[in-house]
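Example 9 (inverse folding). The structure is encoded as follows.
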């Protein structure tokens, strides 16, 4: 298999992914992504610091969620 078909398939997937993200931003309320604080993940917060966005401690629920 040559380089060109693999390159075009890769570019096609990237365009598809970025288009999907763009559509999600346009359709979501205020363009916000849903999710939780990074402080909830022991892989991302090894020192046990509070969330820099909402101030929640690792054992607390995100203070910025719209419930």
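The amino acid assigned to each position is listed next.
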């Amino acid at each position: 298999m040559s380089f060109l078909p693999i390159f075009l398939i890769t570019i096609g997937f990237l365009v598809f992914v970025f288009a999907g993200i763009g559509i999600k931003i346009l359709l979501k309320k205020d363009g916000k992504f849903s999710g939780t604080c990074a402080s909830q993940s022991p892989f991302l917060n090894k020192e046990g610091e509070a969330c820099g966005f909402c101030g929640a401690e690792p054992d607390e629920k995100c203070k910025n969620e719209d419930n």
